[in-house]
Amino acid sequence: MATEVQTNAQSNEIEPRGGSFFQPRFSVRGVATFCRQLAVLLDAGIPVVRALKILGRRTSGGGLKNLLASVTTDVEAGGAFSTAMQTHGAGLPPIVVPLCRAGEKSGELSQNLRYLAESLDHDAHVSGKVTNAMFFPIMTVTGGMALLLFILIWVAPKFLALMTDSGEKPRPEMPWLSDIVFAASDLVRSGTGLVVVVGVIALLAFAVYRSMTSKSYLIDFLKIRMPFIGGMVTTAAMARFAKTLSALLRTGVPVLESLRLSRATVDNMAIEQAVIAMEKSVENGGRMSAPLEEYWYVPELARDMLVIGEESGSMAEMLENLAEVFRAEVDRQQDLLVSLIEPAMTIFLGGVVLVVILAMFMPYITLVTSSIGG
Q: What pTM did the predictor assign?
């Protein structure tokens, strides 16, 4: 029991500080480049202080440059590199400080820095891929909404004026769909209606943004329950978790501490519950994989490989293999999702615009037909 208390105390001691709203958020690719360059300099036999000064002169980014200046001052004064990174590195990825500290303890700081750079580069690649994948749908939705507003504000009134001779005739009987479209046109064209429409769009955009950036157990749970999307979210979270846990275990970080630090990379409160259960199991002297049977969203492959890793004593290697398998699966799912989203969004928005245009034409066609018949 005493050992467990000591482990927890060490965990709290090395925990990196999180960045607040006013603190810098470092570029993941920038941090990865710094780690890789520092590893090269250290392997060349250059002392840490001199290597930091060299990188500080070559770094142009304000936030990272200021960080290197502060870290260099602390290390030059006799402090440990990892401690200086912890003190001044608010906003750094959560695995940076523990991997650096483990590297210092084991004498393999440059190796850990290379491993850290590789992991951060992959995370940045995945994030960039997701951002690029969302660009087309966002542009499609924006263009479709702009076209729809143009039709309602400028085109629909001209059709209505044509049917009523600019208001000299009463509005003819219309199908219910046409009534809805022209009523929406009147609403949007009024000042109050336009404010309402813009407000609704802004609220929806804000709600989407909040769901992507804020912590909410309900939202995170709904994410993993969504068809197709849920599997991709879970697989991506488990890949990050397995990769980070493998890196920490390889460098000698205690199991309980490694689990706690790896939990920060999951980024889903629902999935975090499974990791917390793993922590409690280890803390009570049980197996890491024991509680995973209770969590339906944990892939069966993950449970099986953790069991094999525990029985064979090669947990770090098993986690590394698991991370690679899941990363490949995430890439495949992302490519499939992109290939489905683009035509789906185009067809949906095209269908909406087509329905609106047909709704405007229907009363005009009826009016012309009845005039010919009369």
A: 0.65
